[in-house]
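Researcher: I'd like a candidate sequence for this fold, 532 residues long. If you have to choose between options at a position, lean toward the conservative one.
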């Protein structure tokens, strides 16, 4: 009888919640929007970094105008778009707010070769491991573009990690025009074993999902596309503790995985560090691998012990010996850790870019809207580990490796395999710093030769050297170092001869120093390239 009463109370509560949202008037939703707008302007004006106040207010005004013609799920998606305009991952309307409308019974993952069904419920095993081609009639690339404004996108890695979940929410798909109607089922097109087919998926309750670290947890109802016969290092003991290390005897490699910056109920971070480095001190270590690709953050005050331990061990902290693996889930307090590793150690960064800006707003405050009770979380703490001119959208590893679906499915880890199989002694782990040192030392001919060599090396192909150099040139222009600016654009014109913006800037640099003839020639080259 007691259980029956509890169930009835919960049902009434759930119905009351649903009724509150569905029976809100347009005016009440508009009041909530105005409340959010007032809160932002009064208490969080510092968030206007990536979007101006004027453009944000314009978006708010547009949603305010549209509310009378929108369904409740469309309005909530609209609120998420408004908050996501700040482009800080901690500043958001939570995914669960939209997901509680219902989700599709699948977990998606964006591999190097496309978006695949990484997991699904067992009754839909036909699509397990299939590549997503279309959502409704919308091609997957366009579908991703349409849902992106709903996601509090910090950078592209954040979207690939945390944004892909929104593609499984029918309310978002409809509100963003991916599918035309908001119905009980969603049709998708897949490709598997060389064959394309359409498949209709029902909606399930948000609570019935089975994921952790954005990967499927197999159980009685859910199946994973990954072969479960063995487990790669980065996934071992994942549900038992945040921390794990293993010694690979054959290669004398000490592999460490840290997937949180919080203490775990079975072990504190401090105790883990002590256990880890006691082991390192008593074993021969040829390569030291520290893996934070699944680390979504925690308490960044816990980072100090690791940095101190590494700096106290110069035998571990060597170029070509210490490797730090980042990924699309490296976020929040783990971005702080990544910054500290970059600033103070000799680690080679490898893997995928992080999900966080190097400097960022975190530590959010909950704002509950008075009528709908929708909650928005707005960040208030500015974390700046890097000088402003070294800030970036993400920490981009100097060696970029992204897994394919087949590698994941077959438990291969191309990142760890690359480290173990390659001798990287003498490897230039920070090519921009290397080139900058040559520039500062006035070794111009060596700089030209090294620039050409590094830009030809495929291992550095993912690094946008042109953007880095142009940013450096902007800083030097501000400081009045015009001769240095000219040299930078001369080097860029040699390395990027087909970029009109480089020739335009080169012309401006010549013009600034009174070199009329080469300025005119550079401007002509820029104009010709722009014409195609």
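Model: Candidate sequence:
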């Amino acid at each position: 009888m007691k259980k029956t009463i509890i169930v009835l109370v919960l049902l009434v509560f759930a119905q009351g919640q649903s009724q509150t949202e569905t029976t809100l008037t347009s005016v009440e939703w508009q009041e909530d929007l105005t409340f959010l707008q007032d809160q932002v302007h009064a208490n969080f004006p510092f968030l206007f970094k990536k979007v101006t106040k004027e453009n944000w207010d314009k978006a708010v005004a547009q949603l305010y105008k549209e509310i009378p013609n929108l369904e409740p799920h469309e309005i909530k998606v609209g609120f998420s778009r408004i908050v996501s305009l700040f482009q800080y991952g901690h500043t958001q309307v939570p995914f669960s707010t939209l997901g509680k409308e219902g989700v599709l019974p699948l977990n998606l993952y964006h591999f190097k070769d496309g978006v695949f069904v990484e997991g699904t419920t067992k009754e839909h095993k036909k699509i397990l491991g299939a590549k997503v081609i279309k959502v409704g009639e919308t091609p997957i690339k366009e579908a991703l573009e349409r849902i992106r404004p709903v996601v509090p996108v910090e950078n592209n890695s954040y979207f690939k990690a945390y944004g892909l979940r929104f593609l499984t929410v029918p309310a978002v798909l409809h509100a963003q025009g991916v599918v035309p109607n908001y119905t009980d089922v969603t049709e998708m097109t897949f490709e598997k074993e060389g064959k394309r087919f359409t498949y209709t998926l029902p909606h399930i309750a948000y609570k019935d999902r089975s994921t952790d670290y954005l990967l499927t947890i197999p159980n009685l109802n859910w199946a994973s596309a990954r072969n479960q016969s063995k487990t790669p290092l980065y996934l071992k003991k994942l549900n038992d503790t945040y921390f794990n290390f293993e010694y690979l005897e054959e290669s004398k490699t000490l592999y460490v995985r840290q997937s949180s910056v919080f203490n775990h109920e079975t072990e504190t971070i401090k105790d883990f560090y002590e256990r880890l480095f006691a082991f390192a001190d008593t074993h021969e270590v040829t390569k030291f691998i520290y893996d934070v690709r699944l680390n979504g953050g925690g308490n960044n005050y816990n980072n100090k012990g690791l940095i101190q331990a590494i700096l106290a061990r110069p035998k571990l902290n060597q170029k070509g010996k210490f490797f730090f693996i980042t990924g699309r889930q490296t976020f929040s307090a783990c971005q702080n850790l990544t910054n500290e590793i970059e600033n103070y150690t000799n680690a080679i960064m490898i893997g995928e870019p992080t999900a966080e800006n190097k400097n960022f707003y975190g530590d959010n405050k909950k704002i509950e809207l008075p009528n709908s009770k929708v909650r928005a979380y707005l960040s208030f703490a500015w974390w700046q580990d890097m000088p402003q001119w070294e800030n970036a959208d993400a920490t981009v590893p100097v060696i970029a490796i992204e897994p394919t679906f087949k590698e994941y499915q077959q438990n291969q880890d191309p990142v760890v395999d690359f480290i173990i199989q390659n001798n990287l002694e003498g490897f230039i782990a920070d090519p921009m710093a290397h080139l900058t040192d040559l520039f500062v030392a006035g070794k111009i001919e060596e700089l030209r030769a090294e620039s050409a060599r590094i830009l030809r090396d495929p291992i550095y192909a993912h690094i946008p050297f042109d953007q880095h150099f142009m940013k450096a040139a902007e800083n030097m222009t501000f400081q009045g170092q015009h001769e240095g600016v000219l040299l930078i654009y001369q080097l860029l014109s040699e390395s990027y001869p087909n970029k009109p913006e480089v020739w335009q800037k080169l012309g401006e640099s010549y013009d600034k120093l009174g070199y009329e003839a080469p300025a005119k020639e550079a401007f002509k080259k820029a104009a010709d390239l722009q014409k195609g």
